[in-house]
Amino acid sequence: MQYIDEQNPGNFTALDPLRVLVFDLEAEGAKDAATTLVHSSALTWVPLPGQEAWVEDDDKVFLVHPDILLTKLGPGQKLKLRAIAVKGIGAVHTKWSPVSSCYYEMKTSIRFTEPVRGEAAHQLQQLCPETFSVDEKDEAVVIDASKYTKVLDCLRPDAYPAFADKIAIEKDKTCVRFYLESTGQLPCAQIFRTALQLFAERCRSLSKMVMQTEVHPTEEPTK
Predict the structure, then answer these.
(1) Nearest CA to 179 among 116, 109, 74, 107?
(2) From CA 132, how far away is CA 155, in angstroms rounded?
(3) Which residues form the DNA-directed RNA polymerase RpoA/D/Rpb3-type domain (predicted)?
(4) Which of 88, 93, 132, 209 counts the highest number of beta carbons within 10 A?
């Protein structure tokens, strides 16, 4: 199967066997049951001309999730439909994007502008035990800066004057965490590798354009 793109858009009047799959579904509600469940397993693949060779290959066209509930039919109700599946990429339309959530954040660092010791250190540890601890010198130390969301409450000088002005939360611009969540079609690792390949291709294209650009030095006006 090939992707549809801007040069080869999907055409539902002349179905392209290289880019389109067709499924038929016929179902009828049982007369002796209040409702009849229709699942995705009821979809039947209809090979287009040129796809006949795929019939013998069980791994070529199949339903990934045959147990998806499509609808419920009452007694005697009938359903007949034809579904057309096309393979696209997110650059054409977001509905084909395999990523549901993709974002990055700079690593958070927490430091003490002044030492926090004694009773104040133990109070800070009780407030945020996942972030702070107390060492053998009875001084507060940071054990995990990634759990910083609860620390924000500790910065209130009206509530914790003993240490609120001694804690600094900063962003480390030299370290970035990248988060990628897949919708299920493709593993996150494969999406990330493909994204790096596309990024490298665009960098090479940009480099080629820059190298082919003619430079015309400007002449300084004569005085």
Answers:
(1) 107
(2) 14
(3) 3-209
(4) 132
> CB count, 10 Å around CB of 12?
9
pLDDT 10s digits, 91-109: 788 787 777 788 888 888 8
Alpha-carbon gap, residue 25 to 44, rounded angstroms: 6
Can you give the residue ranges of every domain in the chain? Answer: 20-96, 106-206
* Cα–Cα dist 204/44, whole Å: 44
Q: What span, in angstroms and rounded, lies between the C-alpha atoms of 164 and 166?
A: 6
> In which residue are the tokens 């004057």 written?
161
pLDDT bucket at 10, cuts 50 / 70 / 90: low
**CA pair distance 175, 106, nearest whole angstrom:** 6
For residues 201 and 159, give the distance between their C-alpha atoms in angstroms, rounded to a whole number: 54
**Arch. (CATH architecture) of 20-96:** Beta Complex (2.170)
Asked if 1 contacts 42 with a C-beta cutoff of 8 angstroms, the reply is: no
pLDDT at site 9: 66
| Amino acid 103: pLDDT | 86
Q: Which CATH number fits domain 106-206: 3.30.1360.10, 3.40.50.2000, 3.40.50.10380, 2.60.120.10?
A: 3.30.1360.10
pTM of the predicted model, to two decimals? 0.51
Which tokens in the block code for residue 129? 């035990």
- Cα–Cα distance, 110 to 132 (Å, whole number): 10
Q: d(Cα 13, Cα 92) in Å, to the nearest integer?
A: 20
* CB-facing half-sphere around the CA of 212: CA atoms within 13 A: 6
